[in-house]
Every structure is written in structure tokens, then in C-alpha cells.
Sequence to fold (534 residues):
Amino acid sequence: MKTAKQVFSGAAKLHEENPSWLRWVIASTVGLAALMEVLDVSIVNVSIPHMQGNLGATLAEIGWVITGYAVANVIIIPLTAWLGQYFGTKAYYIFSLIAFIVASMMCGFAHTLPQLIVARVLQGLFGGGLLPRAQAILFETFPPHEVGLAQAVFGISVIVGPTFGPTLGGYLTDTLGWRWVFFINLPIGLLTLLMSIAFLPPSRRDRPRPRRIDWWGILLLATWIGAFQTFLEEGEGDGWFGSRFITFLALVAAIGLGLFIWRELASRAPAVDLRVLRYRSLAAGSIFAVVLGIGLYGTIFVIPLFTQNILGFTAVQTGMLIIPGALASGLCMPFIGRLVDRIDARLVLGTGSVIVGAATLTLAQININTAAYDMFWPLLFRGLGMGMIFIPLSVATLGPVPKRDIASAAAFFNLNRQLGGSIGIALLATLLEKRQVFHYNILAENVSRFGVATQQYLFNLQHALQARGINPATAEQASYGMLTRLVKIQAMILSFEDVLLLVGLLFMSVLVLVFFLHGGNHARRPRAAEAAVD
Fold:
């Protein structure tokens, strides 16, 4: 039997030989870890009512199971490059995997709400390091002409994961109980851990290990991102700036951000290297990533609300409607990855943005007569367009960045996508509420009880109710109630149209950023440019 030393020496020798199959095993390994982490963002959503009843929590209290994970996630993402540099990239990645698995088990075994929230915060802290490290590992492992195809593996996890999360979570909750939405991470995590130990390349240091820790930078980062993420998560429920707590969070986030930027730019060894924004492609791509996050998470937030509240769909029916689009994303990504390795990434990115924008604008034409079939094709093309955006955006944003800065750049890029998702959900939820009130007021003004059309509608409705044996007085009251409900439903539909219109126009408007990105054609040339940048 081989000793551990022999196994690791054999693995090191294998990496020196660098066979092509090994690169794809590494891609599968980090892609599986990324999928596990992304699933945990949305897999618990449908289990919240079960957790609430089992733990005896209020809806506001149980909401921190989601909020705690999201806040911890975005705090750790910008620090992943520094942590990998300080502890070693492979050591930090494997530690994150082990800790994420342990935190998942803690969530599953939690018997009180505080235990569950603490475990979820730990899960978010340790899981947040898996996404940017996975993307950085792919750029470091694959030769430039295969980077696009390698990013397809990562993209499938990030794009498809949030869509399948609620469906998988609902199945596990209904069949095995809510604790299994956390226990499912054990077999997947152990497989990923063994593959990571065996196949990931040894830790490399493109920069010397920091001699001192930027504690002030870490503290300010945790302060402003934690405050901002909590502001986004809790703002809608607390009435935004009508709440002193939310107003306080906004001030802390704004002041903390200013101090954080000043500290990191002044520090010789910053915890988060903001100087990577000197790469034009990263700056433009990060803005694009925010819009991608809004479109990915925001739309998936809006569509179930419409189908369940307006069309009367069940959670399973909604999932079946959304899943084909996710499958379209996953199936097209390997093809897109190979295509990006051959042609200008900006061309594919622009085409994908137009497709997503057009599909979303088509969805914005929904009405009370909309059926599942009417939404199927727009959602399918939206998924196809998302698949055409993610890979070329990653390549065009991170491709020109030298390898010594790729970890910092990947962390910043992923942070913006995550924040975009949070901003999107908060923004669209607020707009839905505000626009619904706006449209209701306008409709109510125009639906006068003295209008001919309104009187005829009420007359027919009252007679229909009386024909069912309801007395005239009750039928009259019921008809007014049904008319009010109809106006409210129409106001909701119009608010959904407004929100989807906004998302569609956002994807059209960011097309201008394509001109500031890199074409990706550098991938067919040796990266001699790195020396010039250095």
C-alpha cells in the first residue's frame, strides 16, 4: 500500500507532466465545489416555513437563516485572494471545503434558531472562498486557448445552481425533511474534498507571503459590506429609510466604504488589492457583472412571484417552467466555451446580452391571460442568452489580467456578481411594491362605480351570484369586493411588466461596456504582455 508521502509525490510528478485529462479532472472538481456552494444560496428558500414551525421562530427571525449566509458570503469573497496568498492556495481551498462541510452538518443538527443562524454564518464564510478560488484555479491551470471551455464548467455551476436549488430543496424537504437540504452537502463535499486533495495543483505563490495582516482593512471591509448586505436584505421588510435601523445601516455602509477604499489604497500590503482595477477590462467587466447578477437572481425572484400569485401555479409547476431555461444554459455552455476560444469574446457577449434583453422584454408583455406556454420560449431563450454571457464575460474580464493578479481580480469580479444579485432582489422587490400602488391608484381613479362599463360589469356579476342562490344584498357587496380584487390583480400585472421591462433595458444598456472589454483573441498568443504589465 502506498504511503501518503508517495501519493503526494506521485501527484506532484503528475502535475509536472500536466496531461490534458488532469486539467479536466481539476475543472470538474472545482466546478462541483462551486455548484455545492451556489446551491446553498437558494436551496433553503422553500424549507423556511418548515424550519420556522420546527424551531418556533417568527418569519422575521427565520429570515436571518438566509440573510446570515448572504452577508457572510459577500464579506469573505474579497478576502479570498489575500487568504490564499497568506496560507497557500491549495491549503486554503481544502480548509474551506472541510469547514464548509462541517458547518453544513452543524446546520442540519441545529435544534435552536441561534444555533442554525450561527452555523449558516459559518457556512457562508467558508463557502464564500470556493467560488473565486475555483475561477482563479481554472485560469491558472488551463492554457489560454482552453480557458473559455474550462470556464464553461464553472459557468454551469453558477448559472444552473440557483435555478435548481428551490426544486431540489423542495424535494428533499417533502421526502426527507428540511435538515437534508444541509446533509446533502456531506456526500458531495467528501467526494469534492478527496478529488481536491488528490488532483489540485500544489500551492503557488505569485507574490511573497504578506509579512503583516491588514487588520484595519479586514475590519472596514466586514463593516461596510456587512452593513450594505443587511441593508439590502432587510430594507424592504423594514420600510427602507422609514426605519432608523435601515438608515443607520446605510450610513455605516457609506462611511465604511469610504474609509475602506482610503485604507486599502494607502496600505502597502492591503487585504483587498483595489489596484487591480487599473485593468480596464476588470473595471468594465465588474460593472457588467452587477447587471448579470440582477438579471440572474432578480428575474428568478420575480417570475415565481408572478406565476404563483397571478397564475396560481404551485412551487413544483413554477420549477418545471424555469428548469428548461437552466438546462439551455448548461447545455450551450460547452459549445460557447469552445466558440470563445476561437472568436472575439465580445461578439458572443454582445449577442447574449441582446438575446437576454429581448427575451426579458418579451416577458414584460405578460397579462392575466398569459399561460405557461407563453412564458416557455422567452424563458428558454433567456437561459440560452445567460449561457452566452457568463463565459465570454469571464474571459473578456479576467483573460487580460496577469496570473499574479488573477486571484484578486476573480474575487472582485465574483463579489460584484453576488452584490448584483442582492441589489437586484432588493431593487425589484421595492419596485414591485411601489409600482403596484402607483398602478392601483390610477386604475381606481378610472374605474368609477358610476361608469357605464363598471355598472354593466357589476350588474352581470350580481346576477350571476344571485343565480347561485346568494341574496341580493350579499351579492352586491361581493361584486364590489371582486371588482376591487380584479383591479389589484391588474395593478400587480402592470408592476411585473414594469420590472421586467427595466431588467430588459438594463441588458441592452450595458452593451456599451463591451467596447471596454478585451476580445479574448490574446488567448491564441503567448502571454508576453504580462511582462510589459509587470
Remarks:
- Residues 521-534 have pLDDT under 50 and may be disordered.
- The two ends are 47 Å apart (CA to CA).
